[in-house]
Amino acid sequence: xxxxxxxxxxxxxxxxxxxxxxxxxxxxxxxxxxxxxxxxxxxxxxxxxxxxxxxxxxxxxxxxxxxxxxxxxxxxxxxxxxxxxxxxxxxxxxxxxxxxxxxxxxxxxxxxxxxxxxxxxxxxxxxxxxxxxxxxxxxxxxxxxxxxxxxxxxxxxxxxxxxxxxxxxxxxxxxxxxxxxxxxxxxxxxxxxxxxxxxxxxxxxxxxxxxxxxxxxxxxxxxxxxxxxxxxxxxxxxxxxxxxxxxxxxxxxxxxxxxxxxxxxxxxxxxxxxxxxxxxxxxxxxxxxxxxxxxxxxxxxxxxxxxxxxxxxxxxxxxxxxxxxxxxxxxxxxxxxxxxxxxxxxxxxxxxxxxxxxxxxxxxxxxxxxxxxxxxxxxxxxxxxxxxxxxxxxxxxxxxxxxxxxxxxxxxxxxxxxxxxxxxxxxxx
Length: 429
Ligand code: UD1
Known about the structure:
The structure is a single chain. This protein is an alpha/beta fold. It folds into two domains: about 5-20 and about 240-425, Alpha-beta prism (UDP-n-acetylglucosamine1-carboxyvinyl-transferase, Chain), CATH 3.65.10.10; about 20-240, Alpha-beta prism (UDP-n-acetylglucosamine1-carboxyvinyl-transferase, Chain), CATH 3.65.10.10. It has 14 helices and 24 strands. A four-stranded mixed sheet has the order 22-23-1-24. α10 links the parallel β18 and β19. α1 (about 20-30) runs parallel beside α2, α4 packs parallel to α6 (about 175-185) and α8 (about 245-255) packs parallel to α12 (about 380-395). Bound molecules: uridine-diphosphate-N-acetylglucosamine. Uridine-diphosphate-N-acetylglucosamine binds near residues 132 and 134. Uridine-diphosphate-N-acetylglucosamine (UD1) binds next to α1, α5 and α6.
């Protein structure tokens, strides 16, 4: 299993190209199941999760073709991929796939909408809480689906097709919003989703569906109206930039000090995080290519943070921000409100010398003068990158084990950081 070695203490200076968002790419790829015409996606990141989803979609009958890169083009411009689901050959998503990536559960809505049936294994993915699927199921039932649980599979049918309905989510769920939205675009009549997720990735999906002929209003607000259509057609869509990758690199620069331009970054996608970083003493300014992040050696101020659905502070940046606060000049409280088990990085950060106490859903982080390199283990996607951030500032070598978690969501992280002056390398085994 690959490991990453970081020798800390180097400032980051230069530029980093922000990739297309993983969390938008996955539902966009799944949206290809809704049409027999070709969906072309530009600015696609090259990630383990994208490769796995390609295999899953291939199993359902989606043909995928990737445009070759032009000679001399940098790795930063993203792939262009054409997905064509001319015929759905299999409506089952098996355990061996869905257990490895939670987002693959989202094929349920589109398969049901297009074929009137689907059998999808209960999901797996990052172990950051119990992560049930009750909201997905009740949402699809509100559109007339009949759903049973059989031997670890969700078996859904809508023999006469889905019928628009009113879906009121008791809790905000990104995945359930994606799933119901994709089902509703081909349902008969109007669907109203209330308490929908407002995350930019939901908006990105809705924009792509609209380009395919879907009729959707209210996206980006908690109430989405969808008028079902008989058929979707092909379209071309560019994946929005990854706000979590942007925030992660901004925090890396905040941690080490330096001056980095995040090319392609959009501040409107993560203002809650930029506000917090500015309070911590980091300078973030828009440029004509993205965002410039600077910290010039001044101490980091401690800032309290509580995660929340968009436009709040994203849970996917909580671990990275905690790593940053381990070096702040004081104590900060970091509260996790979305997932109940998303503090697995705490014990790993402690190996590097961080002082963190847990009190229920809050981590109390007391900044220390220095972190020290050690062997640590990546436990989930965002936790692993928090260890990279801490390692960049630790004295001596940090070895991060189980980096396959990192490869699921961060494209070329060693070269992106290495090009800015970090001493980081992948140790292949
Ligand atoms: C997505 C993101 C993930 C992010 C999360 C919250 C992708 C691929 N993943 O995950 O990176 O951390 O949103 O922003 O986009 N819940 C239920 N019942 C359900 C579904 C969810 O109780 O049926 C709960 C979850 O346990 C959690 C909360 O709702 O407590 C939010 O989860 P959700 O927004 O659904 O997360 P994902 O879509 O899995």
